[in-house]
Amino acid sequence: MDLIIRNVRLASRPALLDIGVSAGRIAALHPHIPSTAPVEFDGGGSLAFPGFVESHIHLDKAATLHRCGTDGATLATAIRKITELKAAFTVQDVHDRAALVLRDAVTHGTTVMQSFVEVDHAAGLRSLEALLALAAEARHAIDLRLCAFAQDGLTQHPGGETLLDEALHLGANSVGGCPYTDPDPEEQIRRILALAARHDCNADFHIDFDLDPTASALPFLIRHVIETGYQGRVAIGHATKLSVLPEDEQTAILEGLLAADIVLTALPATDLFLMRGSMAPLMRYARMGGRCALATNNIVNPFTPFGDANLLRMGNLFANITGASSDTDLSLIWDMLTTSPASSLGVPATIAEGAPADIVLIDAPDTATAVRELRPVLGGWKAGVWTFVRHRPEMKAPF
């Protein structure tokens, strides 16, 4: 063994055990592994898991609030402000702002992240260049994946598809669209899915981000995904429109999403801020058997003027707003931060013999307690490499 992490619990095995690591993988899970490793860490009864999976964030436009302020606080205003700013983004600027957020995410227990990166007439490929470099620099601590993204529409911008195609050739892992910023939403969906199929990658759409109960783009997306055989390879974010639909219409769309195996992602901080308290009905979709994810979206910019890259905070906020309080519901929310987004990105998310030694410890006896009490993470390893530690607080004057 290269490393033994002692006295931890698993969600599926609450009794204390040790985790033995060898050559970057989990080699043993036993109550008492003989002391054969040069490095040992005492988990002190904490919960071990493979780390949080952040499936929807925008590193390229994080930490820009000081450049444009928050006046307006509407989706259209936020898009306009960022569109104006990103024309002046440099590779170094994007890299440095994104690195601050990425380091915070790692120390809050995130081991896998998908960031959208805007590739268009204003940003060109500069942000992609910055984030590809950052992904390489940080690979010892986090698996950073990039989704080439058409934030400002596609069909109205000649050359947009060529840029997305080039981004995928350069190393982007997936492709994303934003139908509500396009004069022809259905055509954008067709083109994005065609690009995804051509590159054999996943597609991810920001969609139905409003509170108008008419003109949903989801029925077309569902039909087109099924017609093209792309079930299981598409995710959607926001979809706040679902929250204001009559129950029968909402049910029909959720059943369609389930049939197409589309992952539904809510972004609590942004959705609540811009949509005045409305979010997609994740709990209902999850109980129907749908794959759901909770994610951060934006940090300290016009879309979301706060944030610290603590993904567990999104789970706690979502539980608070939706009234989820039972252990069963809170464990389901935990899955929305871990196993469900991991399945969406196609990454392993298990503590098991033979699995990658991606291990995070959180100061909680179980997943429900972690979400309910927003318990702190204590330390983490990526492929057996120790990436961070957060010490438990110590009272100097106990009572």
UniProtKB/TrEMBL annotation:
It holds the Pfam family Amidohydro_3. Residues 91-384 form the Amidohydrolase domain. GO terms for molecular function: hydrolase activity, acting on carbon-nitrogen (but not peptide) bonds, in cyclic amidines. Keywords: Hydrolase. PANTHER family: BLL3847 PROTEIN, CYTOSINE DEAMINASE. This is Amidohydrolase family protein. It comes from Gluconacetobacter liquefaciens (Acetobacter liquefaciens).
